[in-house]
Structures are given as structure tokens and as C-alpha cells.
Amino acid sequence: MAWSRTLNSDSDTQRQPAVEIRDLTFRWTEPGPPVLRLDHLRIERGERVFVAGPSGSGKTTLLNLLAGVAVPRQGSLRVLGRPLEATGGARRDHFRADHIGYIFQMFNLILYLSVLENVQLPCHFSRIRRERARRRSGTPTAEARRLLKQLDMADAGCPDSPVNALSVGQQQRVAAARAFMGAPELLIADEPTSSLDADRRTAFIQLLFQECADSGATLVFVSHDNTLAPLFDRTLSLAALNRATADRETALQSGS
Ligand SMILES: Nc1ncnc2c1ncn2[C@@H]1O[C@H](COP(=O)(O)OP(=O)(O)O)[C@@H](O)[C@H]1O
Ligand SMILES: [Mg+2]
After folding, report:
1. Residue 228 pLDDT > 90, yes or no?
2. Interatomic CA distance for residues 106 and 15, integer angstroms
3. Ligand nearest, relative to CA of residue 105
4. Who's near 221: CB < 8 A, 6+ residues apart?
5. Ligand lying nearest the CA atom of residue 61
6. 148, part of any domain
7. Whose CA is nearest to atom 4 of ligand 1?
8. pLDDT-derived band at 129, boundaries 50, 70, 90
9. Residue 72's domain spans which residues?
10. Closest CA to 106 of 191, 12, 3
11. Domain named ABC transporter: which ranges (predicted)?
């Protein structure tokens, strides 16, 4: 029907917020205590959001949900307009490959692949990202080189050398270049600066901002280092947002 085509068109999807969560409860084990209980959380397209919270407060769990790695049994979770709570495993894998760049705390680079091969990995799993890389720079390899240069990695020796020859700061920038490859709409970063000193931390975040501004991407950045928060558009305090934390504290106080 014409109206459903209109509703589901690309431009309509692009107008949806980057993230919209309602009445979500998530448990890692069923039955078990909820790790996350969120009434409402909305992140607009292009926002740069800092997610704060002490260790164990559910920051990585939230990122796993946004990336469709974990699925809530209760509530709704829309990412880039897609209802992930109602999307099967294989479709979620495709969705992640096409639309999400993930910078892991430990980078998760493939150590036996070269710098260039690591950065191009998303193009192997997603035609959309391969096409975007081609449109931007002609070939995925050229786009990988552009991103590495943009992230101040032009002087990091030979891009054909294996990544295990790089310093931690350099590995981190390779991980960022890989996440940006093929311009995914949502960038997720899980404590990517925890192994850097303060100056390098700020410089790295400025590089992330620059790339996000270039591609119009939304950035969800997690850290337990609150000194970074003022750099971002907005801070989400998970300790305040997550009603599961309050429930646990109440249970502890009442001795139950
Ligand atoms: N894959 C998992 N399986 C089972 N429990 C998990 C898993 N990941 C995290 N948890 C539990 O969920 C809670 C929140 O953890 P996490 O989201 O990693 O917090 P943070 O990133 O804020 O330190 C902790 O109690 C942790 O043990
Ligand atoms: Mg974590």
C-alpha cells in the first residue's frame, strides 16, 4: 500500500531519532535481577552523548543493546528507526554491520591482519558500507587511507604492517578508523580512552567529533572518567536513569 511505503521509506527512517527506548527491562539471565530498567531514553541524530556511571552500572550492557548484541524481553528499543526488540538474530547482525561502528575498550583488532586490512573489515560484511567507502574515496582501500590520515595515523609506519607492531594509542586510532569505515550512522565507543593519558584523551575525542561531524553520525561514548563529560553535547548518568540500580539499593537497605 502506498501509505506504508511512504512510512517505511528511507527518508522517513532518517527522520527517526538515533535511539528511542521505552519501558525497557533487561536481564542477562532469566530469571534473574534486572541489570537495566529504563523508562525513556531518546538520542537525536547527530548528538554526541556521554554515558557516565560507575563500574557495574550497566554501561556496556546498554551499548550491547544499542548494537543489537543483546535483546530486551520487555519494552521497546528503536535504533535508527529499527525496532530491535522485534528483529531476529541474523537481521540484527546485518543491521549492525550496515549501520553501527563499534569501538571496543580493548579495540578487538585482528592482530594477524595489517592496519589497512583491519580498517577495511566492515566493508567485507556490509555492501552498504563498501558502497559508501567507494563513493567517498573511489575504493575501500583509498577510504581506509583517508581515515587513517584523518586520525593522524599517516606517520604510523607502513599501513601494511601488522597491528601488533603499533603502540596502544595507534591501535586505538586504527580501531576508530575501522568504526568510521563506510560512514555508519551510529558510532558506539566503550571506554576507548581508558589507556591514554589526559592530553591524548582529549585529542582523540576531538578526532572522533571531527569524523562524526563530517559524516553526520551520532556518537554514544561511554566512560567512567567524568572529566570528559563537558566536551559532549549531553551527559546521561546511568546511575540516575537506570531504575534497576535504585531497586538494588532499596533491596540492600531493607535487608532483603
Ligand atoms: N555478558 C554478560 N553476561 C552476564 N552478566 C553480564 C554480562 N555483561 C555484564 N553482566 C553483568 O551486568 C552488570 C552490568 O555490567 P556492565 O554492563 O558490564 O557494567 P559497566 O560497563 O557499567 O561496568 C554487572 O553485574 C555484570 O556482571
Ligand atoms: Mg563496561
Report:
1. yes
2. 33
3. 2
4. 48, 49, 50, 51, 189, 192, 205, 208, 228, 232
5. 1
6. yes
7. 28
8. very high
9. 16-253
10. 191
11. 19-253
Neighbouring-strand partners of residue 22: 40, 76
**How many Å apart are CA 131 and CA 179, to the nearest integer?**
16
Query: How many separate domains does the chain show?
Result: 1
Whole-number pLDDT of residue 7: 43
Ligand 1 pocket: which of 26, 61, 69 to mutate (most atoms within 8 A of CB): 61
Is the confidence at residue 2, as pLDDT, over 50? no
1 domain residue, yes or no: no
Cα gap 130→138, rounded to integer Å: 10
The DSSP line for 4-31 is HHHHTSHHHHHHS-SEEEEEEEE-SSSS
Q: Which residue has the higher pLDDT, 172 or 38?
A: 38
Look up the CATH number of the domain holding residue 25.
3.40.50.300
Residue 6 lies in a domain: no
Residue 46 lies in a domain: yes
CA distance linking residue 21 with residue 238, whole number of Å: 14
Give 154-192 pLDDT, tens digit per residue: 765 567 778 888 888 888 889 999 999 999 999 999 998
